[in-house]
Amino acid sequence: MKQVSIGHTLVGDGNPCLIAFEPSATYTTVSEAKALLDAVAAAGADAVKFQTFLPGEAERMMGGRRDIEVEFGTPTGRKKESVQEALKRRELHFEEWKALASFAHENGLLFIASAYFFDTVARMRDLGVDALKVSKGDVNNALLIEAMAKTGLPVILDGREKFEDVRRGVEICKKAGNEEVIIMHCPAGYPALDDTVHLRAIPAIKEMTGFPVGFADHSLGDLMNYAAVALGANMLEKTLSPDRATERVEHFMSLEPHELKQFVDNVRRVEKAMGSADILSSSRVEENARRSFVANRNIAQGENITLEMLDFRRPGNAGISVAQGHEVLGKKAAQDIPAGTFLQWEMLE
Length: 349
Known about the structure:
Elements: E1 4-6, E2 9-11, E3 18-22, H1 30-42, E4 47-51, H2 57-62, E5 69-74, E6 77-82, H3 83-88, H4 94-106, E7 110-114, H5 118-127, E8 131-134, H6 142-150, E9 155-158, H7 163-175, E10 181-185, H8 201-209, E11 213-217, H9 223-230, E12 235-239, H10 260-274, E13 292-295, E14 310-313, H11 325-328
Parallel strand pairs: 3-4, 3-12, 4-7, 7-8, 8-9, 9-10, 10-11, 11-12
Antiparallel strand pairs: 1-2, 5-6, 13-14
């Protein structure tokens, strides 16, 4: 299994799962974004991930089409809003992105950026981000993926596209001399329904590619993340909101700041509980829970030992173990054995 370095953090089997929170769609000011980053750092997470739109890029991407809408869930039901307006809320000036990246690094967090244009890729590289992510809509964007790979930064591929396009994205990175690739399994939907999460894709992608695989969670709550870790996810990405009751896209499926520490702690507990299959080669039963053979009546010297003469009593190391039952039957008593005596090998012949 390939190991990928994001900053000084190794991602891949044998390493702690990298935990990233994404406040991309849920902050309204830089100061609010910094407050969310404070919560991420305090929770002990590893990284933050932003969709790094610069001013004008939402309109540039959508061509001014405000009629294209995204549907999403809220506490009061399904709603819709303009995709362009939703993306425009993510726009910050370069200096503001620089301030956020610096703030993240000062607080011990990796900074992962989704970039959508060639010039933005270059600017994010200059800004000092730790990894670049290819968004769901760009997994078939060969030239943009190539540009990201040529920065030398780790490339994270969103796995919502059909897998042949994901595989092609991996090959583009490799051809560009960059094998620092992570593939994120990401269910569709805002939020994703349970039967659309398809967690079995995580080990399947690992087996097909040999690269680390993450899980970008769009479901409600936190449950699916723990199942993903148990299935081998090397990275988690979960959206973060100051208030998930906000009736805009992505808030409803997010965690709130006070929930982050418990989330991180739960992930680490699951990792610790995974342990090793080597446990199957050793016993987890204490000797005092096992049993030894005991005479249930007086046995005279010279009698052949039969099942009717025997009982089983704890502990397992007080005499002949019941594991050796077939070897005991048919033996002859070498001496008189009083009832209630734990049988020893020297008492038999």
